[in-house]
Amino acid sequence: MTTAGSYSHCPNCLAEYGTWSTTCLDCGTALVPGPSPAQEETEEVASGRLEVVERGGDPAAGSLGRFALEEEPIVLISMIEEDVDAFLAALDEEEIGAQRGETADDGGVEIVVHASNLIDAQAVLVEFTGDVRLVDDIAVDPDQDGPASDMAVVTWTRLQDVGVQVNRLREGGVDVRIELPDEAARASSAAQAAILVPVEELDLSREILGIEL
User: Fold this and answer.
1) Which H or E run includes 168?
2) What letter would DSSP give residue 76?
């Protein structure tokens, strides 16, 4: 369990950070020590919990080639061998990078995509299979350590747009985790943050943000 001394928070918007940051990336206010008071609200308050973390580098990701970005790849689906090449071709037509993963327990072949392409890849998956229910099974790696293991990426967005989308989710009662690139990457105008929500609230979050698959 993380102690209170490991947190800092923004006194203005109440976003909570780890000790790696001294300034709120949402509103620019200097952070103060301790967890956010917003995290200690009673159950009668509908606002969702907010956590902001910085993505750490993963040296092993270099072996993933074009997938070696900020996040570990996500297993989009496991499918029979006969459909793999056709589905990879369908993803490639949409300029979505994908690769074969490991053989799944059911004997199928895992199809791996990058988290930043998840929404687009889901749309191709639904079109390819005709089964919209498949997208409900997609989340971050369940073997990943830490609190993100039960959360799924609902969208990626530019840093300057994060606050608006997160506020909409929290007002809808959804807990939110923001994963930011490192400090050097944040200097780029193209930098993006991943917005994660609990897996069981993924459909609600898409509805709140107006995301249609």
Assistant:
1) helix 159-171
2) E
The pTM score is 0.43
Residue numbers of the chain with a pLDDT score lower than 50: 1-4, 41-45, 57-71, 139-149
Query: Is the separation of the CB atoms in 204 and 170 below 8 Å?
Result: no
> What are the phi and psi torsion angles at 45 (to 5°)?
-85, 130
Q: What is the DSSP letter of 156?
A: E
pLDDT of residue 73: 66
Domain with CATH 3.30.70.1530 in the chain: 73-137
The Cα–Cα gap between 4 and 121 comes to: 39
Q: How many residues does the chain have?
A: 213
Query: Is 23 strand, coil or helix?
Result: strand
* Domain 73-137 of CATH type 3.30.70.1530: yes
Task: For residue 177, give Cα distances in angstroms to 16, 61, 149.
Answer: 10, 22, 11
- pLDDT confidence of residue 57: 44
Write the Ramachandran bin of 38: left for phi over 0, alpha for psi from -120 to 50, otherwise beta.
Answer: alpha
